[in-house]
Amino acid sequence: MDPAFFFIQFLSGLASASNLFLIACGLTIIFGVTRIVNFAHGSFYMLGAYLAYTLTAQLMPILGDVVGFWLAIPLAAAAVGLLAVLMELLLLRRIYHSHELFQLLATFGVVLIVQDLVQTVWGPEELFGPRAPGFTSFVVIFGFRFPEYQLVLIAAGPLVLGAIWLLFNRTRWGNLVRAATQDREMVGALGVNQARLFTGVLFLGGFLAGLAGALQLPVEPANPFMDVNIIAEAFVVTVIGGMGNVLGAFLAALIIAQLQAFGILVFPQITLVLPFLVMALVLVVRPWGLLGKPETTTSHGFAGDRPLRPLGRTQQLLIAGTVAILLLLPLVLGEYGQKLALEVFVYALLAFSLNFIMGAGGMVSFGHAAYFGLGGYGAALLVHHLGFGMEIALLAAPLFAGLGALLFGWFVVRLSGVYFAMLTLAFAQIVWSTAFQWVELTGGDNGMIGIWPSDWASDRTVYYYLSLLVCGAAIAFLWRASHAPFGYTLRAGRDSTLRADAIGIDLKRHQWLAFALAGTCAGVAGSVFVFSKGNIDPGSLAIPTSVDALVMVLLGGIQTLTGPLVGGAVFHLLEAQILPLTDYWRALLGAAILVLVIAFPMGIAGFLRDKLLPDDDRGDDQREAAARGAAEKGRAEAPT
Amino acid sequence: MTQRNGSALTVQGLNAFYGRAHILFDVSLSVGKGEVVALLGRNGAGKSTTLKSIVGLVADARGTRDLNGQDISSQPSYRIAQAGLGYVPEERRIFTNLTVMENLEVGRQPPRAGAPEWTPERLFELFPNLAEMRDRPGGRMSGGEQQMLTIARSLMGNPHTILLDEPSEGLAPVIVEQMARTITRLKSEGLTVLLSEQNLFFARALSDRAYVIEGGRIRYQGTMAELMADEAVRQAYLTV
Amino acid sequence: MSEPVLQVEGLRKAFGGVIAVDTVSFEVAAGRLFAIIGPNGAGKSTCFNMVGGQLLPDAGRVQLAGQDITGLPPRRIWRLGVGRTFQVAATFTAMTVVENVQMAFISHRRRLRALLPTARKLYRAEAMAVLERVGMADQAERQCGLLAYGDIKRVELAIALAHEPRLLLMDEPTAGMAPKERIALMALTADIVRERGISVLFTEHDMDVVFAHADTLLVLDRGRTVATGTPDAVRDNPEVQRIYLGGSGVEAAQRAMEARA
User: Fold this and answer.
1) Does C93 touch chain A (CB under 8 A)?
2) pLDDT tens digit string along C186-231?
3) Which residues of chain A are within 8 Å of residue C104 when distances are taken between CB atoms?
4) What is the rounded distance in angstroms from the CA atom of residue B197 to the CA atom of residue A384?
5) Which chains share 3+ C-beta pairs under 8 angstroms with C?
6) Of A270, B197, B232, C227, which has the most beta carbons under 10 Å away?
7) How far is residue A164's CA from residue A161's CA, in Å, rounded to a whole number?
8) B158: phi > 0 → left, psi -120 to 50 → alpha, else beta; which?
9) In chain A, what are the domains?
């Protein structure tokens, strides 16, 4: 092929690298300082584009095209910066010391709220912005026409990189920010108003994301899907570069953008998956990204983790009572009620299986829906393409999900903390992209329909009992495993990887097996689900489903075994009741997440447990002494 | 008494809490201008919490704290530092990614009346080791060098009073001796020092007066000489 | 003389051009307490972590009772009979005290992957016996994370003793403890290891502890061996006094050794 064509393709790659870098740069700076992975960064980007749309429309007629446009861009960026400041003041300040799970969920709550907000203000249609005055034409390079504006974008990346470098290495502010990155409290004790420093960092990060969105407007219309589309890639870039490392983000943006620019020539179908594949490979070779540094935390437990206790008499009676009620339920419930109830079983199992790795193992998965979806798709494919019956599908589909979890798990258990969360998310995106793009096999966006139970189980009540049996058995099995040495081994690794290693535990292997086990059980839930609904589409394994699962666990309480079951049930019943009534389900869910994270981090079951059972059998004196010791040592937070 | 020159730091009825746990009970103490006072006690007795409460690093601390006549009880930690209080934590907490010079820069504050004024050059005179490693990242320094840097860093704020949390902890005996000379030198510059220690031998050589804390309560106060003479108190609380 | 339990030859490690440990060799004889001392940054912890498997040496060899264990991961080294305690105690904070020790037994008997038995009921008697020995039996059912720090250190010792190791690695075993607790913990450790013939390699800053219990000392400075020998010889070594002990260190050593005699 023509080398000149390759050069043009390379230039296009550079332009999209700039765009990716601008977003990832702010994301990585915010993470570096606050240790918060900001899901809402994609929302900032989207808001940048929308605000630029409105501002150019307002300013260009008044100030003339050139001044109006080039003033609107930085103004839009600054406005987004101010919104980021608002988020810092109202939300982030309350969760700086929370577990990473809460931080990720809270910023995802903001994503949901902004989505509904944008739709309300700007409507669901794509909005095309003006072309950039002064750069509306083409330059001819080796006989190919290349848009001038792309050259502007190409320049923007290195310019911002240089400016950031100067800011961080040549100014007192930058020096203070770098210090605060490591120890914000100490910076405060040295006379620096660290709260203002953080606010400044959020402004900078928001500004950069807004700038990226605003600069993109002449190239791509503002649309309500920009946020989720870009955030996954921005995660990939920051993770590949090393979280918190600006130069790393720059390199990673170059790599990803170029691979995509050339990958599309060779194998167009792979473009959605490619960044995630690259990320998986990089993380295996360099678990902390290209230029990142290892995280030092060795414990991934949650505040309020306590020893597992055998079930007391009351609890045993409660469980027996619940089972009895569930067995009798079809006598009083109609068709819809039974369907709702069996979906509750499905979600309870999904949440329980997630909490098996998260609560006991300290592994926060942001892609658990992948295995739920693999179970569902596995069953659907067996029925649809291979003509198998429900019985075979229910047996084989979970194994299919388990194999997926075994494959992806091999990569993810090499990481921990936010890196683990990011990689699970990336793998889930791979699965989602495959389901979405491989239309011949999966039906693409429309999914597959007509997946119904075998004749003997087609009666709603029969399928209700079948679901209860299958989901109940899976939950009972995971429950047993939690109390068995295997579950204890996971808990040991969560509490102290150092100690686990020093008593002969091959932690990664156990985490890997646990991940696969949890994936298999999520697959059970998925396959039971598909026969209840009769169809499946990519929504079942998209990010929102993974987040739903997390919210169920959080709602119920991470630190308890019963919590996820309660959470799954309550969440699904609420969803079924409220969803049909409102156009603002996402905003409502987002707000609910924020309330949970800030006010009820222990969840329903955790809250009840703390009310009903004191946290230790000791007197106050001893607890005080222990707390004082812990406080003096600056170790973990004192028991509350 | 030493209070003649006025008090640099006065703490009254300090109660501190971590969550539901009550850590400090009515702790009161005062440090006169130019004095070196030791806060002695075992691990977990409440020494670090006392110092952290004074510098505003304990979220739930009640009672009054007064620095040079200024009420700092409800001030955020950066205001307290700006009022002229330096703090050297036990865990050192230097910025390992920043160089020695950059670490010092973080601590820099404008000079203030009534307190010795420090520049990096003057500090390098006090800590000659540091002068040879201006551009070395903090993470590449030994424990003793890090301890020196922590002190130098808080001196960059030109404090009139400085809190040292177990400065001898985890240091080689020879370095501990060097640390003692440094603190004596700071005293001679007119600095007020409150020092938390378990190492009675170290504290004895430096301090004018001492408080003994145990179980979050002040159990004893007196001059260093009185404490050294009081076998019973030392046996009960200090277990040397 | 019998074969040494631990034999370290020419151990070397550099971090980004800075040599942390430079060709260090030593031997720990069976049933002996061997201390590594030296200023901060002398390479004690680095040395220690290379023996324990947490760090991979650049050069040199570590042998356990004649078997080469260089570069093995910690979990393999543990299976060969090496117990470990850490500078900042590492325990399973959300488990009870006795469960912490039971985990060590479950791992030792290779039942980590069992999915059906109730972990809480496994090897309980054995675990209680070890807790009895370190004086923690009465707190067996408490959550480990809520214990006083001195007690957590005892639990850690119990975990390390569970699989009847022939060698204990203790990195600053008394760091962060009150003077009285320090002496008590080290006295307990010394009693146990002597009655069971276990060898101990430990680092320590408290000269009272070192000189009260160590049979042999190795002094490191900037990664190099400055001196090695009996407590008397090390205390009287002028180079050691100059770079490390100083006047107060010698005093402490004197005090401890008199108490020992």
Assistant:
1) yes
2) 999 999 999 999 999 999 888 888 999 999 999 998 889 999 999 9
3) 503
4) 75
5) A, B
6) B197
7) 5
8) left
9) 3-285 (1.10.3470), 329-601 (1.10.3470)
